[in-house]
Design goal:
Elements lengths: L2 H24 L12 H4 L1 H14 L6 E6 L7 E6 L10 E7 L19 E3 L2 E3 L3 H20 L6 E7 L9 H7 L1 H4 L2 E6 L11 E6 L1 E10 L5 E2 H4 L6 H9 L21 H14 L2 H4 L14 H9 L3 E8 L10 E2 L2 E10 L5 H13 L7 E10 L2 E2 L5 H14 L5 E5 L4 H9 L4 E4 L15 E3 H23 L7 H6 L10
Parallel strand pairs: 3-6, 3-7, 7-17, 8-16
Antiparallel strand pairs: 1-2, 2-6, 4-5, 5-18, 8-15, 9-13, 9-14, 10-12, 11-13
């Protein structure tokens, strides 16, 4: 492989073709179904699908099939199948994954920015969804195109782009089952929906947290009453809700009090957290737009890495039953509702954690208040299998070639349900989980941006790894090759990316 030629090809492809497509994509308010109940009637999801489908069909990749698969009552899925360009790989397959649905608008955008307003400023493309995860289909095909431009062979590739990841990927299992024969048995899974702790090297994700939570309501009255008449007599729904939340979270430290939600962190992940803390340093917290003087939850940087990757944590992401400040009268409100988002350790059982959360909040409500918890999610996380030597070397070589620095490994605090699902269905597969969501990129929040140079380099790294996967196939080192299948062994390593 001529790394300089790969780098140049991909850079030009991004500048001339991919960035303009992402500009058009950002303009489309194709919010995930959880945030747009009328997504079918509104038609924005369809616009995003058509944009990506048309672009994919226009790419000069002989042997590629492009299809939008539609199952009744579900969001669509883009399915691409690319025949192997080299001999002797048999059914060995690389599966590349991304999603096209977006998070909602969120408040707080700068005056000259907005979620559906693409703005190019230096090396950054602002707007919702470019980095999370609109670039995935473009980056995947650009990696394949770069190999073919240089005449480098690759194994069969399948690209899946779903449209409900931000809602928990509840449609995806049906599609994976429906397309099982066409997907085959991937020996390498590449996911482009993760993060990076800096823009200076390739970062690979070793674990993902699970998630449970939903809408929690405390009700004390059938209707609001005069606060001067009722306060001191009728308990405040807000106070009772706060009291109940203290059953699951220490309000002084933020530690989750339900021991069933904690797990033992593997020694390998502890060592990786220490190395990541050394490299990232204070960027682990100062990448966020902290108010002046705010201190992080722990002075130990390794503990902060572990807090965001291997420990449960509670966030209140929404509130109901409260009027806005300008119209808040002297009324004791009948109820208070909050949306709870409880991140779970990678190896915790999401369903069981949801049950523990519900039991803790609903048992023996204070003052006989009416309490309810509508669980919206209860999904388990994912801890990567051991990394095969060929992939470990390929990833590090790619980072050295296109960043000039070694690859780094760290868990991520978010959730990608697809990974756990694939880990179960394809236990022999290797995983390369990476992405462009780095410092200040602010996915899901205001002023979200895509760091374009990072997108280019990650694309180049994917091309390098796909090429090395082909070589590993020929050497019989992948799960899809006869040698690996017959050996019955699994390679060790310092964790999958």
């Amino acid at each position: 492989m001529d790394s300089t030629r790969i780098d140049q090809f991909i850079s030009e492809k991004w500048d001339s073709d991919i960035v303009p497509q992402l500009v058009d994509y950002i303009r489309i308010p194709n919010k995930s179904p959880m945030f747009d109940a009328d997504w079918v009637a509104n038609g924005y999801m369809e616009q995003a699908v058509v944009l990506m489908e048309n672009w994919a069909r226009a790419q000069d990749i002989p042997g590629m099939e492009v299809e939008v698969v539609r199952l009744d009552g579900r969001t669509p899925l883009i399915f691409l199948e690319i025949s192997a360009s080299g001999p002797d790989t048999g059914e060995d397959t690389v599966l590349l994954y991304g999603h096209l649905d977006k998070q909602p608008e969120m408040t707080g955008w700068d005056d000259d920015l907005g979620p559906w307003q693409p703005v190019l400023r230096g090396d950054k493309l602002y707007g919702r969804g470019g980095a999370d995860d609109g670039y995935a289909i473009f980056g995947s095909l650009a990696a394949v195109l770069a190999l073919r431009e240089q005449g480098l062979p690759h194994a069969r590739c399948v690209v899946l782009i779903e449209a409900c990841e931000e809602s928990g990927s509840y449609d995806l299992p049906a599609y994976v089952d429906h397309l099982a024969e066409r997907i085959g048995k991937p020996s390498l899974v590449v996911c482009l929906d993760s993060g990076c702790a800096n823009y200076d090297q390739l970062w690979c994700t070793t674990s993902l947290r699970g998630l449970t939570g939903g809408n929690f309501t405390v009700k004390v009255l059938e209707e609001g009453v005069h606060s001067g008449d009722a306060s001191g007599v009728v308990p405040s729904s807000f106070r009772l809700l706060r009291q109940l939340l203290s059953r699951i979270e220490d309000e002084n430290t933020g530690r989750i009090l339900l021991e069933g939600l904690h797990v033992e962190v593997p020694a390998e992940r502890l060592a990786q957290a220490e190395r990541a803390a050394e490299v990232v340093d204070t960027a682990i917290f100062d990448k966020f737009p902290l108010v002046a003087g705010l201190q992080p939850m722990n002075a130990d940087l390794t503990e902060l890495v572990l807090n965001r990757t291997w420990r449960p944590a509670l966030s209140v992401t929404g509130i109901g039953g409260m009027p806005p400040l300008e119209s808040a009268g002297n009324v004791l409100r009948p109820q208070t509702s909050v949306k709870l988002s409880l991140r779970l350790p990678p190896t915790a059982d999401g369903k069981r954690c949801g049950e523990l959360l519900k039991e803790a909040l609903l048992r023996d409500p204070p003052n006989g208040a009416h309490v309810s918890l509508e669980l919206e999610k209860a999904s388990s996380g994912w801890n990567a299998p051991a990394l095969a030597p060929w992939l470990e070397k390929a990833i590090d070589d790619a980072s050295q070639a296109f960043f000039g620095k070694p690859a780094m490994y760290m868990g991520e605090g978010g959730s990608i349900p697809f990974m756990g699902m694939l880990g179960e269905k394809f236990p022999g597969a290797q995983f390369m989980i990476t992405g462009v969501l780095g410092p200040h990129s602010n996915a899901h929040g205001p002023n979200e941006f895509l760091h374009i140079p990072m997108g280019k380099r990650v694309t180049a790294c994917v091309a390098k790894v796909i090429s090395e996967h082909y070589a590993a196939c020929l050497r019989g080192e992948t799960s899809g090759s006869p040698v690996a299948a017959d050996s019955g062994t699994r390679h060790g390593g310092h964790g999958c990316c």
